[in-house]
Design goal:
The protein is mainly alpha-helical. The protein is built from 15 helices and two strands.
């Protein structure tokens, strides 16, 4: 008796596309039965089906299409990582960005409302340049919380802890008021709070931001106090 869990147990999604005999009808039937198998296609790995070195260009496109049908808010799992590498990067390495980007654009059409650039800024900022070439209109949009791209980039860099004040003071000196005063929706914190919390707090950066924009403390007093109380 064929069971749903057999799809992962026997890696049937991959098998339905493997060996030079692509069977999209069988693949589609299996995906519709267990869409989550796209995220983890076998029982021994946390790797998504899209993030696979064994794809051809055709099978990569079939899997991306299925991912967009079932996980559009996650951009078809294009930026799900395995061992620090996104499916998008794996495809770039295998086929080249000039081959992969037209495929991506077929199933994630460029438009001013498309937030793919924001996902890239959060997860794989080194891909922003190539994505901006194809999704240039989206640069002027805002994300679901109303942030601009520069605010998203600023918050993401703080969350990654990749910009210490001593190593890159110009990062903070060049920050705009809108970046400094905007609240990160993922952490619920303002930038100076993000820098003050956690195991690697950056006192110099906190001091710099508050001296640069002291209104952060006076114009949002109640909100700031509420957040600080939760952090204690």
């Amino acid at each position: 008796l064929f069971k749903k869990e057999d799809i992962k147990n026997f890696d049937l999604l991959f098998e339905s596309l493997d060996g030079g005999m692509i069977t999209p009808q069988i693949f589609e039937m299996l995906v519709n039965w267990d869409p989550d198998a796209l995220k983890k296609h076998d029982r021994s790995s946390e790797k998504s089906l899209l993030n696979n070195d064994d794809h051809s260009k055709d099978t990569f496109e079939i899997v991306l299409k299925a991912g967009m049908e079932h996980f559009p808010d996650e951009f078809g799992l294009l930026f799900q990582k395995f061992r620090g590498k996104t499916a998008c990067e794996t495809a770039f390495d295998n086929f080249g960005a000039n081959v992969v980007m037209p495929i991506i654009c077929r199933w994630i059409p460029p438009s001013e409302d498309n937030l793919i650039i924001y996902a890239v800024a959060e997860v794989a900022p080194h891909l922003e340049n190539i994505m901006t070439i194809y999704y240039r209109d989206a640069v002027f949009a805002r994300d679901r919380s109303g942030r601009t791209l520069s605010q998203v980039e600023f918050h993401a860099a703080l969350r990654r802890g990749s910009q210490s004040f001593k190593a890159n003071a110009s990062f903070y000196a060049n920050a705009t008021d809108s970046q400094i005063e905007s609240r990160d929706p993922l952490s619920g914190l303002y930038p100076f709070m993000m820098l003050a919390s956690g195991d690697c707090s950056d006192v110099d950066a906190v001091n710099f931001l508050l001296r640069r924009y002291p209104e952060m403390l006076t114009s949002n007093t109640n909100t700031v106090i509420d957040i600080l109380i939760r952090l204690l």
